[in-house]
Amino acid sequence: MISIRKYFFVVVFFSNTLLANYSVYEGNIGKYKVEFYFDAFYKDDINIIYIDNRNYEPRQLNSTNKYRNDEGITFNIPDTNFGSSIIDTIVIKNIDFNEDGTIILNKTLECESKLYGSFKLDKKFGYDFKTHVNADDYNLKLKKNVEFNNVEIIQRESTKDYYFKTLISKKKGEFMQVVGINIYQKKDGNLFQTINNLKGYGFLSFTSINTNQDANFDEKDNDFYISKTTDSINDGNILDAYYSYDNNSGKFVYLNLSGRFITFDSEKKTAEKVKYCPKDYFNRVILTDLYQYTDKKKYTILNSKCKVENKSKVDYKLLLSRQCTKKERNFCMNASELLIDDYLD
User: Fold this and answer.
1) Among residues 19, 27, 21, which one has the least CA distance to residue 50?
2) Residue 293 belongs to what H/E stretch?
3) Contact status, residue 30 vs residue 115, Cβ threshold 8 Å
4) How far apart are CA 9 and CA 264, in angstroms?
5) Count of H-run helices and E-run strands, the chain
6) Which of 62, 114, 134, 272 is the most exposed place for a label (fewest CB within 10 A)?
7) Where in the chain are the domains?
8) What are 215-267's pLDDT values in tens digits?
């Protein structure tokens, strides 16, 4: 049985966060129970993740045409996420738009399936950023007054046996945060594991979790990493924390590895993490840590190197490279891994 939490919320995102309408709908297509997760803003910017209780495979729907008032919008359901084989085509008939072109997702969506005929989707929760004239007061009130806990948002990527939903919470006066992960079994849709107490993970819609790195080098599809952002969805402003399935404990475990710039060596079973700590635009400390993946299913540090680079103020060419002092090393160890963003053009 697909788990849908019965919440309905409206949440605001300002200029340094996500600006979109996020909504979750539930319904039935034929004999299958379905969920539709919307990340949408304008007519040509409608993203939907679909999942049903046939095989619990998250799929991103493909829009086949632009919106027409008399026809709605047509989407193809792929056999697998990003797959080219189509298992059904649906039309969502009653999506509306404001005068500024931003989307309105109604409480009930009237839909048509090529295979199963007419069906309806009922909204279970949603949050909507408004951009029309005089919307500032409305948005500020939402930020100040709205709060909720542990709302589930499907993640686009999954492993062979598991799919993921992030748990989203918001306190009054603050923005949304990812506070946990629910991991579900694809074989029956049952909840397998919950990871709680995540801190500092800003909301990244359907892409908080990725599964494209074999972090424990076992050549099995049983790894994921969750991405952390503090104040934006800029691809550069991301830190990743790595997890893998552990046969001994029978659950996913944190591998003691997180960072922004990490490269893996599958032959040596190592991971190299580089941390850049600018002092200004022309001087920076670079800390490079080499980690070894061990039989204890964790990464442990092998060695750490630290250097200082000084560059020309004229052409930005390297003038000097030397080892760090103890003070410089401590500066970089204590600095945020996102400090470099303050010095990017």
Assistant:
1) 27
2) strand 283-293
3) yes
4) 41
5) 2, 25
6) 134
7) 21-143, 147-255, 260-345
8) 999 999 899 999 987 554 444 467 899 999 999 999 999 999 999 999 999 99
